[in-house]
Design goal:
The chain has nine helices and 14 strands. It is an alpha+beta fold. The longest helix has 21 residues. The protein is globular, with a radius of gyration of 19 Å.
Length: 333
C-alpha cells in the first residue's frame, strides 16, 4: 500500500441499452436485475481528491459548495473507502461535469465512477476493475458500468452481500463506431431522482415483476447484436427495454412520468427516420431527454430531424469512450 496522495481522474457517463430499474430490497444498492450499457464521451466528470487527516469531508460540484443532501450522500459513500483504510481522515475534492448534472444525462454514472477511482487512488489503494465497479455501484447503480469503456454488462449477482454485483467489459469502445445524438427537451434538473422512481415502481407497480422478466432475454439479445454488430436487432432490443422500463414506472401509484411532450415527439421522429431506412433507435432514462443511437453516416440526418422536432431545444453528440482513468499529475483534461 503506497502513501496517500492527490488523485485526478476522469470518468465518462454511460447510457443503458438494457435498463437497470429496481434494487434488491434491503441491499447495499444491489440491482434487482442485470443491465447493459455503452460508455460515452467526450462528456465527462473530472474529480480531484486528497485525503486530509483530522479534517471533515469538503467538496465542490461545478465550483459550488455541495447541498446538504448531496454532501451527506457523498460522505456516506466515502465512508466505504475509509472502512478499507482506516485513518484516512476527510476527503477534500472538486468535481466538475462538462454537461448538465442530475438532468437525466447520466451524471451520477460518471460522478460516482470518478469518485470511487479518485478516492481509492488517493488512499493508495489499487482496486481491480471488478472491485472498483462494486464500490462505484454502492454510490449509484449505473456507475458500476462507467468503470469500463465501450459496452459493459452489469451483473446483479446472487450473493446476499452484493459481492458478485459488478460490471464487466464485453466489447471495447472501438468495437462498433456508433454515434449517440442526445435531444435535450428541457433545461434544469429532473423531478424524480432515479432511486425514488425505482423504489416507487417496485413498491406499487403491478408491472414491476413483468418488467424484471424482460431483462434476461434482452441481455442475451443485446449481447448477440453487439457481437454481430447487428444494428436492427440492437434497435429492437434497446427500444423495447426502454419502453418496458418506462411502462413499469408509469404504472406505479402515483405514476412516475419522466416524459415531456417533446420526448414523445422525438420518439416519433426516430421511428419515422427508421421507416425511411435511416439506422437510428432511441432510448430514454430517468429524465425527459431522448438519446438516439445511430451509425456515423446517419448522424447529420438524425441531428437535423431532431432539431426540427417540436420542443427539442438542442442536441449533443456523443460516441463510445474509454473507462474511468487516472490523469497523470499536472496534466489537463
Ligand atoms: O444509477 P442510477 O441510480 O442513477 O439509475 C440509473 C437508471 C437508468 O438510468 C434509468 C437506467 C440505467 O440503467 O442507467
Amino acid at each position: 500500500m503506497s502513501a496517500a496522495t492527490t488523485a485526478r481522474v476522469i470518468a465518462h457517463p454511460n447510457i443503458a441499452l438494457v435498463k437497470y430499474w429496481g434494487k434488491r430490497p434491503r441491499s447495499a444498492n444491489v440491482p434487482a436485475a442485470d443491465s447493459l450499457s455503452l460508455t460515452l464521451g467526450p462528456m465527462h466528470t473530472e474529480t480531484t481528491l486528497r485525503w486530509v487527516e483530522g479534517s471533515a469531508d469538503q467538496g465542490t460540484l461545478d465550483g459550488r459548495p455541495l447541498s446538504e443532501a448531496v454532501a451527506r450522500r457523498l460522505s456516506g459513500f466515502l465512508d466505504l473507502v475509509r472502512a478499507m483504510r482506516p485513518g484516512l481522515g476527510g476527503a477534500h475534492f472538486e468535481t466538475r461535469n462538462d454537461f448538465p448534472t442530475a438532468a437525466g444525462l447520466a451524471s451520477s454514472s460518471s460522478g460516482f465512477a470518478a469518485l470511487a477511482l479518485a478516492a481509492t487512488q488517493a488512499a493508495g489503494l489499487s482496486l481491480d476493475p471488478a472491485a472498483l465497479s462494486r464500490l462505484a455501484r454502492q454510490g449509484s447503480g449505473s456507475a458500476a458500468r462507467s468503470i469500463f469503456g465501450g459496452f459493459a454488462w452489469m451483473h446483479a449477482g446472487s450473493a446476499e452481500d452484493g459481492s458478485d454485483a459488478f460490471a464487466e467489459a464485453i466489447a471495447p469502445a472501438d468495437h462498433w463506431p456508433l454515434k449517440v445524438v442526445v435531444a435535450i427537451t428541457m433545461e434544469g434538473a429532473k423531478d424524480v431522482p432515479s432511486t425514488d422512481g425505482m423504489n416507487l415502481t417496485e413498491a406499487t407497480s403491478p408491472y414491476y415483476d413483468a418488467w424484471l422478466n424482460t431483462v434476461p432475454p434482452a441481455i442475451q439479445g443485446a449481447r448477440e447484436a453487439i457481437e454481430a454488430r447487428d444494428f436492427e436487432r440492437l434497435a429492437e432490443v434497446a427500444e423495447a427495454s426502454a419502453l418496458q422500463m418506462h411502462a413499469s414506472a408509469l404504472a406505479a401509484v402515483p405514476g412516475v412520468i419522466y416524459w415531456r411532450g417533446a420526448t414523445l415527439e422525438a420518439l416519433h421522429t426516430v421511428r419515422a427516420l427508421r421507416a425511411q431506412g435511416t439506422e437510428a433507435f432511441f432510448t430514454i432514462d430517468a429524465g425527459p431527454h431522448v438519446k438516439v443511437f445511430c451509425t456515423p453516416n446517419a448522424e447529420a440526418r438524425v441531428r437535423e430531424a431532431l432539431m426540427d422536432t417540436p420542443g427539442v431545444l438542442r442536441t449533443l453528440v456523443a460516441e463510445p469512450a474509454e473507462g474511468a482513468h487516472v490523469l497523470p499529475e499536472g496534466s489537463h483534461a
